[in-house]
Amino acid sequence: MAFHLQKRVDPVDAEIVLIEENYYHQYLYRIHEVCNSYYEDEEIIVPISRLLKGKRVKFLNTSVTSVDPERRVVETTDGDQPYDVLAITLGSHPEYYGLEGLEENSLTLGSFEQAKRIRDRIEELFEEAEETRKPPVILIGGGGFSGVELAGEIADWYPILCERHGLEVPRELVTIIEAMPTILPGWDPKLVERAQKILGDLGVNLILGDPITRVTSEQVEARSGRVLEPDLFIWTGGVKMNQCSIGDVEIRGRRIVTDEYNRVPNHPDIFVAGDSACAIDETGRPQPPTAHIAMVQGDIIGQNIYALLTGGAMKRYEFDRVGEIVTLGKTNAVGELFGLRFSGALAKFMKRVVHWWYLYTIGGIGLVWGS
Description:
The chain is an alpha/beta fold. It folds into 2 domains: 2-21 and 62-94 and 240-321, FAD/NAD(P)-binding domain (3-Layer(bba) Sandwich), CATH 3.50.50.60; 107-237, FAD/NAD(P)-binding domain, CATH 3.50.50.60. Helices cover 30% and strands 25% of the residues. The protein has helices spanning 2-8, 48-52, 112-132, 145-164, 189-202, 291-310, 344-363, 365-368, and strands spanning 17-20, 24-26, 45-47, 58-61, 64-68, 73-76, 79-82, 86-88, 92-94, 107-108, 138-141, 174-178, 204-208, 212-215, 220-222, 227-228, 232-235, 239-241, 251-252, 255-257, 263-264, 267-272, 277-278, 323-327, 333-337, 340-343. The chain has a 5-stranded parallel β-sheet with strand order 10-17-11-12-13. A 3-stranded antiparallel β-sheet has the order 5-6-7, with no helix packed on it. A 3-stranded mixed β-sheet has the order 8-22-21, covered by helices on one side. Strand 12 (174-178), helix 5 and strand 13 form a beta-alpha-beta unit. It is globular, with a radius of gyration of 22 Å.
């Protein structure tokens, strides 16, 4: 969005300010890869200073605490930042649904730093297992994209850790517990079936149709009466907009309701995209918080802000489902793009192509080739 604007807006007419609490931009669709045998930081994050080099965007490395639409001010931990036009893209935060003990007794996969904490804890558990001779029990709550991709990475890594620490590899390496009767709810049934087969071959155990009701430091309890005793419990069962006071905006599904131009209806100078936005699809349902939708919204908002500044016509946002690819470990994936189904190595390669395309859109060919 910022890149789009800086190409079109004359610096005499407007200053573009980007506020972000991290010094880096993270490829959220790849953070599960941290929990495998090997990764490099630059495969998951890139410094914002590198992305902004040569671009007319001012970067403020600080945290947003609230937005005051009446004063037209973004309040941060380093002071107020006034605005004439604002785009809110605050990302997401885990949703715990008020379940007893869930937040206190789980790790989450919502950022690069959280992924590293999961990785560190897994390595600690295997070190401890050298004495107990008992391979750690790892449980993931939530069988959506994040949970499934994380399970695939851990299942790939698990036998390597067993060999490193002299442990026998168990039959079940990691378990997913999901409230719905299937993993990847709402996805193509044939792709779901294929994903479940691949996960089973990797050693991932699936517990489906059994919502979690309570979590303690030692147990995870489900509605059926099932009691699980994991050494590590990771929650990937839902997200909500990052906590931030934003005045009198309408919230639906834990996100800000937007109009057809991705604006807040009662605040025409505020746009919202990504996990912060509750955009409605053609069926009247909120669209899922996916990376593809966020990118499309960002492009359209960039065009609409330019139109707002120049008096041009705004572009409507229309939901156009391109598809998704879910990775299942280092070498496998299943997915659909433009109506075509993929699985296995081809799907994995297509996921890589999508990543290369994204790198090109934010940093050009130099970022794609690591230069």
